[in-house]
Amino acid sequence: MKKSDFNFSLPKELIAQVPLEKRDASRLLTLDRKTGEVQNRTFSDLLELLRPGDCLVMNDSRVIPARLMGERVPSGAVIETLLLHDRGDNVWECLTKPGKKTPAGTKLSYGGGLLNGEVIDALPDGNKLIRFTYEGVFLEVLSQLGEMPLPPYIKEKLNDPERYQTVYSKAPGSAAAPTAGLHFTKEMLLNLEQKGVKLSCVTLHVGLGTFRPVKEDEIADHIMHSEFYIIDEKTAQTINETRKKGGRIVSVGTTACRTLETAADENGVIHSSSGWTDIFIYPGYAFRVVDALITNFHLPESTLIMLVSAFAGREHVLHAYEKAVEERYRFFSFGDAMYLY
């Protein structure tokens, strides 16, 4: 398949720049993946749409203030650094801008020396490995110096950084939010639990590969980015028991979906595990675990719209996107949501 098979027209004014005042007041477009029928709902309607015995699987990764503005030592030239992956031993895989100005051996300073770094390697994809030195706790230093790394299509300043976090986030490590979960409130989750919907969490630390465009014309030639995931024994057991009893596995977002499909065996049984996944899901993929998907609207020709198309059918998905544009839905990270079942 060609990447152009996943293109659609989107007026720029439909790209949401700020979150709504109420998280669960977002609109919800439902899509029946068997018939292609779409309906206009509100996100809080999920209380009706989910059934007792279903299991809602969320990604509890928390976005870190991963964008650092520093300077090259001794020249003082401004260097932007984006933390991508913690490689251990105070070494992070980073994206630097301008990248050509930071070869191996480059020394960097942030916050007047509160944090210092040295580029120890340049990777084939252009990313850099930087070893950081500091006093105290790294995440505390980062909270002083770093900024929330909003996607490039969001131009407005975010007044409350917590609005780019899910209410259930707890595991720091993402460079971008698992945005499908931004619509949930604690009250809504409590109501779902009281209805008999099981709540489970996986962890997948979202990298910037989420925003990298597919450059190859043939999508099968695209090399997917790797991201670190964790599924614990309790979550694996809950999901497996749900499936045995005939309940549905409802994935909150493409990140949770990719994690579940990575950890499932050929029979759809989830095993507790952790590691790096570069699973690329596009039409033709046979889903092993996920029965329903909650997700935002994604960029044209992105790996995310390809995943959604694999789940519900490319024609159905593109038709639903056309309807969403007609109905003036809000798109992307701070936009409205879809429920595909």
Task: Describe the strand arrangement of the main beta sheet, using strand numbers.
Answer: 2-1-17-16-14-3-12-13-15
**Number of helical segments with 4 or more residues:** 7
Helical amount among residues, as a percent range? 10-25%
SSE ordering: EEHEEEEEEEEHEHEEHEHEEHHE
The profile of the biggest β sheet is: 9 strands, mixed
How much of the sequence lies in strands comes to 25-35%
> What overall form do the CA principal axes indicate?
globular
The class by helix and strand makeup works out as alpha/beta
Compute the average pLDDT.
96
Computed over alpha carbons, the radius of gyration is: 20 Å
Q: How many structural units, i.e. domains?
A: 2
SSE layout and pairing:
Elements: E1 27-31, E2 38-42, H1 46-49, E3 55-59, E4 61-63, E5 67-73, E6 78-88, E7 91-97, E8 107-110, E9 115-122, E10 128-134, H2 138-145, E11 171-174, H3 186-195, E12 198-204, E13 227-231, H4 233-244, E14 249-252, H5 253-263, E15 273-277, E16 292-296, H6 303-312, H7 314-326, E17 337-340
Parallel strand pairs: 1-17, 3-12, 3-14, 4-11, 14-16
Antiparallel strand pairs: 1-2, 5-6, 5-8, 6-7, 7-10, 8-9, 9-10, 12-13, 13-15, 16-17
Helix pairs in contact: 6-7
Describe this structure in words.
- This protein is α/β, with parallel strands linked by helices.
- It folds into two domains: 3-63 and 160-340, QueA-like, CATH 3.40.1780.10; 67-145, Beta Barrel (Thrombin, subunit H), CATH 2.40.10.240.
- Helices cover 20% and strands 28% of the residues.
- It is built from seven helices and 17 strands.
- The chain has a nine-stranded mixed β-sheet with strand order 2-1-17-16-14-3-12-13-15.
- A hairpin with a 6-residue loop joins strand 1 and strand 2.
- Helix 6 packs across helix 7.
- It is globular and about 60 Å long.
- The two termini are 24 Å apart.
- The mean pLDDT is 96.
